[in-house]
Design goal:
The chain is of the alpha/beta class and 269 residues long. The chain has one domain: Rossmann fold (3-Layer(aba) Sandwich). The chain has 8 helices and 9 strands. Strands 5-8-7-6-9 form a 5-stranded mixed beta barrel. Helix 1 packs across helix 3, helix 3 runs parallel beside helix 6 and helix 4 packs across helix 8. The two termini are 25 Å apart.
Length: 269
Amino acid sequence: MQPELKKAIDYIKERIDIQARAALILGSGLGDFADTFDDSVRIATSDIPGYPRSTVEGHKGFLVFGRHKGVPLMAVQGRTHFYEGYEISRVSFVVEIIAGLGIPHLLVTNAAGSVNPRFKPGDLMLIDDHVNFLFDNPLRGSARFTDMSNPYSSELTSDIEHLALNRGIPLRRGVLWVSSGPAYESAAEVAMIRKMGGDAASMSTVPEVIMANTLGLKTVGISCLTNYATGISTEKLTHEEVTITAKKVKESFISLVSNIVTEIFTAQI
């Protein structure tokens, strides 16, 4: 273990007294799920040795440990993005912390633009797979040749789909396309994404998922579709719109994640 990572993990362990069963990385406008935790401990990421700070509006910058309906969890309120200027290995640093804390499961979430015209703003999309258009990889210079044939656990993804169906929670399935940002995609780029198999476009998630697969975490992902991508809609895109739409679907998002935590992650232990 690298000294910087060890310092970060030791700092966190000194402040918590639970062993989380799963970690959740909460995307733009989705961080409120961590507020449902009982007996929570909030650690400012700015205080953790070596931790890269999130500078994005709407990302609070905390690691939150607590129990949701009795299930011990860790939540990341405010992820770090590649477009903030960090090396890509820094973006996935939190996943190394998660693995170092012995947490076996990871749920990644994000706000994304709908590229598939059949998916509308406000939909939740279960991520089947992704396309890495960041032109970089968090493993460069370190671990190599991680298998990515099942980056989002097909077993857990199937379980989540059945759970959502039984609970009456509408849920799409699709491929996440991730590029570096921070500008939104042009109409021509969106047309290319559609032709190349993408259903939703985002600026996050992939570095974390690559690292999670490298470190053996069982991973699933959910995108909150907050807008139509450029060219599908004539409206100009803003980060404020993304955050507002994410908050509008907060109830269905919390309901889905709550059921994933209590029915699926606990059954895996």
